[in-house]
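Lab notes, practical 5.
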Amino acid sequence: MTATRAINDGYDQIIHMNMIMLNFLGDSIDTRSMGRFTKVAERSGKTDLSSLAVKQFIKLLQEKKIVVDPTMALYEGMFTDQPGKLATGYQSVLSMFPSEIKRGLYVGGLPAMKGHEVQYQQSFDKMMKMLSLLYTSKITFIPGTDAFPGFMLHRELELYAKAGVPNAEVLSKATYISAQVAGKDTELGSIEVGKKANLILVDGDPVKNISDIRRVELIFKGKNMYEAKALYASYGFGFWK
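Output from the prediction step:
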């Protein structure tokens, strides 16, 4: 099933950027197989984002008010990480992790990448350009991850900023817009009287430097306050430097 068919059949949200890129590779790929990853990695680098097919698809997203959850950090890992090399985006926080987590950051991307490294990198680069196109086309997209809770979300937001989304809008996508999409914006997503007090306090200014979202000091959830350092320690993690 292509993304276009899914939308025409009534879907109101497309999850994962690979499903969008598959839309331009025909309808013969079994999306239940690993081909939904490997075929995108091998071939999407050649997708012409100025083509009529892409323009028609973007128009469809606009007309149907489709929400996209691209999970870009997931594909950065799949398409660009290489065995024996540290996963992209984790250098600044590597010292926080216990050894078993660190080992997992050196396993590399998809096994099928070997011999296709250039094509895989080109395809991820094209995914990033597609994300930029979604932004300039005013398509609503929100951050999801599918991996490594917490830390993968930080990387997802960094990639949005890298794709050209202003930091303030990146933060809005992770908070208020996500709450809107979930139908929870009357109780979550912004700091207002009467809403749930689910907040984080960071040492920095992520509007200026999006990576400061990693520097969490305090967490407020309802009536409770938690120290990030103590929470990390309870799971065997160190603290950011």
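Observations recorded by the TA: Residues 197-241 form one domain. The first helix runs from residue 3 to 8.
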